[in-house]
Design goal:
With 442 residues, this protein is α+β, with helices and mostly antiparallel strands. The chain has a domain at 41-190 and 299-439: (Glycosyl)asparaginase (Glutamine Phosphoribosylpyrophosphate, subunit 1, domain 1), CATH 3.60.20.30. It is built from ten helices and twelve strands. Helix 1 runs antiparallel to helix 2 and helix 9 packs across helix 10. Bound molecules: aspartic acid (ASP). Residues 60, 116, 306-308, 326, 328-329, 338-340, 346, 358-361 line the site of aspartic acid.
Length: 442
């Protein structure tokens, strides 16, 4: 038996175990399923799956630990990832295009409040959600991208409209929203994107920023950030979501949904790198000085995580596609745009390779990560997993860039390396069995 088929056997055996347990309908069966999936998608032995067609997704990478993820939240996130895989599979199974499978899967994750895209997007420094997305068709190399949009429910759909209904590749801000309207896409109120969790995430980021900027405490006194809050004091000074803030941020009731309805017309402002776990050992660089960005801190789990969503697919015709959608990074400022909508950085597909990335975008832009992986496949004739592992575990780690990618080649080989402690990820092939994993080790 070819060694590349043994994981399939392993997985089938594990799957049969899960099937035997399933009728029991108890927590044990879902725990067994989760353990099976974690084993199948373990990162130190990436699955050498080779289907004729399939779909891979991610829901962001970062410091994700079992201790800090509640069973309820983990179950909800696994369910959303499974739903996304099934949405994409339904398209591919009918003989649909990889492009349609990618957008169908991403739409599910954008609509979920658990991922940093669409409904669950993080807030920028001004308390506003600004969304970026991109899609690329490997067969034609057509691509579409949007950045800094504030009223688009499913930015991935707008990216696709840019690709298919305009002569351009990328549109930003008000212009992109005007284009959406010209194509009959409705704008949604900025309030749609409000989630309490993300709002609290911004408050923590602002608090951390203030603590860093605070002058050192006089001798003999603990620093302000370690002092107990005085009665009635609000440690963080939250903004009203959807309203641009003066600097410094003005206090208002923490955790309250927007009080002022945000306008829905465009043009108006709405109210240390982890160790590598595989590949060649690399020496991480020091964090870049001067970065005021706060990589996403999950407000529920307290974990440092990103949370962008993405998908890559290979259809029955042998065509590849890739897409990525994000709210960017918590507390971003000045119209900052990350790698997700940049073709070749966070998103890329050609006739032999498709990649979607998640992580600290500035690094993915500077190292043109998605295209670098595909270029290694093209020019060096490297197997996809080798090319992806090298870029994520060597090039990026040496640079100090945290994150991961999902990737597929035209033979259906899959890679999903990440250099953080976790990455929400999933795979579905011809047999329609969704496999979802989060952690580095099963
Ligand atoms: N790559 C995204 C960005 O930098 C963030 C993420 O992946 O969560 O905007």
């Amino acid at each position: 038996m070819s060694p590349s088929f043994s994981p399939w056997l392993h997985r089938s055996l594990l799957a049969s175990t899960a099937l035997l347990l399933a009728p029991m309908g108890c927590a044990t069966s879902s725990q067994a399923g989760a353990a099976r999936d974690e084993a199948a998608l373990r990162t130190d032995a990436p699955p050498r799956v080779k289907p004729k067609w399939g779909l891979v997704i991610h829901g962001g990478a970062g410091v994700i630990s079992r201790e800090n993820l509640t069973p309820e939240r983990e179950a909800a996130m696994r369910a959303a990832l499974t739903e996304a895989l099934q949405a994409g599979h339904a398209v591919l199974a009918k003989g649909g295009r990889s492009l349609d499978a990618v957008t169908a899967a991403i739409r599910v994750l954008e609509d979920s409040p658990y991922f940093n895209a669409g409904k669950g997007a993080v807030f920028n420094h001004d308390g506003v959600n600004e969304l970026d997305a991109a899609v690329m068709d490997g067969k034609t190399r057509m691509a579409g991208a949007v950045a800094g949009v504030r009223h688009i429910q499913n930015p991935i759909d707008l990216a696709r409209l840019v690709m298919e209904k305009s002569p351009h590749v990328m549109m930003v801000g008000d212009g992109a929203e005007a284009f959406a309207q010209s194509q009959g896409m409705p704008l949604v109120d900025a309030k749609y994107f409000y989630t309490e969790e993300r709002w609290q995430g911004l408050q923590r980021a602002l608090e951390q920023e203030r603590a860093k900027q605070a002058p050192p405490a006089p001798q003999g006194q603990p620093p302000a950030s370690q002092q107990p809050p005085t009665q009635g004091a609000t440690p963080a000074q939250p903004l009203t979501p959807g309203q641009p803030s003066p600097t410094p941020a003005q206090p208002s009731a923490p955790g309250q949904p927007p009080t002022t309805p945000a306008p829905s017309s465009p043009g108006q402002a709405p109210t240390t790198p982890p160790p590598s776990n595989q590949g060649q050992p690399a020496t991480p660089a020091q964090p870049q000085p001067g970065s005021s960005l706060t990589p996403g801190v999950d407000p529920i789990t307290g974990d440092h995580k990103f949370g962008t969503v993405g998908a890559v697919a290979l259809d029955q015709e042998g065509n590849l596609a890739a897409g990525t959608s994000t709210g960017g990074m918590t507390n971003k400022r000045f119209g900052r745009v990350g790698d997700s909508p940049i073709i070749g950085a966070g998103t890329y597909a050609d006739e032999r390779c498709a990649v979607s990335a998640t992580g600290h975008g500035e690094f993915f832009i500077r190292y043109t990560v998605a295209r670098d992986i595909c270029a290694r496949v093209e020019y060096q004739d490297l197997p996809l997993p080798e090319a992806a592992n090298y870029v994520i575990h060597d090039v990026l780690v040496k640079a100090g860039g945290e994150g991961g990618v999902i990737a597929m080649d035209r033979q259906g080989h899959v890679a999903m390396p990440f250099n953080s402690s976790g990455m929400y990820r999933g795979y579905i092939g011809e047999d329609g069995t969704p496999t979802v994993a989060i952690f580095q080790q099963p």
